[in-house]
Batch of 3 targets.
Target 1
Amino acid sequence: MGFIGSDGRAAPRLKDTALSNSKYCSLFSQLLVDVRRMYQDCRLVHADFSEYNILYHEGHAHIIDVSQSVDLDHPRCLDFLREDLLHLGQFFAKNGVAVPTVREMFDFVTDPAVTPDNIEACLEALNESALARGVRRGRGDGGEVGRCRLTLSKPVLKAPKVSALETIM
């Protein structure tokens, strides 16, 4: 654990930043992949994921308050995951990002067939689905139209394939 900030000042929470639409799009992709990594690699669900528990520093999002995360054996872990994804979608929809439905994000996070080899294609499929739906009153549960593409801003570490499935979603 370390200090996130500059010159003795803590980095701002994501909710307190004003960024370009393209930066919000990039951060949405990064955070969705981070939620997936927590679930698949760490076997954890944050359980309080929102723009209040994400710091923004030097162009990157840093998830904080991970100590209350629950492991996948927790009886409510999937409920918490759904809420985490709802909060993620609501914040970024308010900031002009084309947001997939909570169900689509949930499937992306939990599907073992999504691998480092096909994750970009899966993000593109999520983006196409979100763009195809049209605006639904900004609820953040999917379908809001933005003008950006979901892509990875940093490479995903290569790991052995979890599943023999070669399909994208």
Target 2
Amino acid sequence: MTLSLNLTIIKHVNETGDMMKWSKNELFLNPDVELSFEQELVSEPSWFENLTHILDVTDIFVSGFIRYHAHSDMIQYHMQLTGNYVLPCAITLEKINLPFDLIEEDAMTVEEAIQEINSFYSDSTGVDLFPIAKQVILMEAPKKVIKKGLKEYPKGKGWEVVKEDMQAKDKQPDPRLAKFKDFKPE
């Protein structure tokens, strides 16, 4: 007869105020127990230093669980990330707020996690899911957004932004390439 025990432990904030970190002892002394977490995150300007397609990320909330499976020596996590991207419009550069709701999950053996570069697990410090959450938020941001209902494109002295279909109508073919018009590949 096998007895199955399904426990959930809600993690309390530790001394540093971080709920997305667990020591090896916390993890391994609670085998097959869901260690749940909920945390609000605040983005920092350093997140976007080399990114031009994200201006900010606001109202970030992360919830989920992590579990150590003793029988398979596997660490599994699941997290849901919600918040708002602040992105520049690709045409006008106006700020656009775009909500997101992302799911991230993974499972790997302790040995695989130790060997993996940039893993969520370190043999010396335990588990830290914050870098994973940050990476998912930044990787899932759209590269290009356009403001809904944009009717008037920006223009200035001697320049204007035109729609691609209008540009194609005005564009005359290069006369040097005219002889390729009759070319038929065999």
Target 3
Amino acid sequence: MSHHSIKITSGVKPVERQDRTQHIKSKTAKDSFSAVLSSAQGQMEEVQRSSEKIFYNIMTPEMSIAAPIETSPDAKFKNILSIVMKHEGTSYVTKDGGRESSKMGILQSTAREYGYKGDIRNISKDEAEGIYKKIWDKSGAADLPYPLSVVHFDTYVNSPAAARKMLKQSGGDIDTYLGKREKRFIRLATMRPHRYGRYLKGWIDRVNNLRSVVAEYAKINEASKIETASAKSVDTRA
């Protein structure tokens, strides 16, 4: 008895199947990006509706509020760096933003610009902190009141040119600053979805985390004011 193999085909040519597969993948990617974009825009609208303005006039130091707990310049930097590092992470990335390798949020070219000579994958935590300190000094964040300082430094690490522009345009209004940063991320992801679309959710989460930092500080500051007023009231009665 002879045995014959039977090849079952779908009736669709290989090229047609490939085209259909690519079309499905492209449609899935677009749908995923659209969902993230829609969610980001919805979050922006919600923030605009519900958030209270927290204004810090960077031109009048007497209105500024010192960073909580830590008051020395070095302590202030390290406190803010810890927030930035939660966003940047510590991993080695081969193609950060589709460009070049990075580690702990520092691109190879940036490390070289600030004096690091080795391969970025070998950079130590102390060396990375040293580079961030130079970026901190250059950014001007040290001269800003908290929490505007953390918002500006986190933005500066991401894009120095954009940070300088947003600081000037916002006039020290943190809500306006973060709103501009969020819109920039959405604009980048919309204009170049194949390059930036996959980063949009993480970018929006980063902005929202900064909003949480700002809101938490406002809450602590308000509680401190109430406690101080209460203490003064007790002293007056005494």
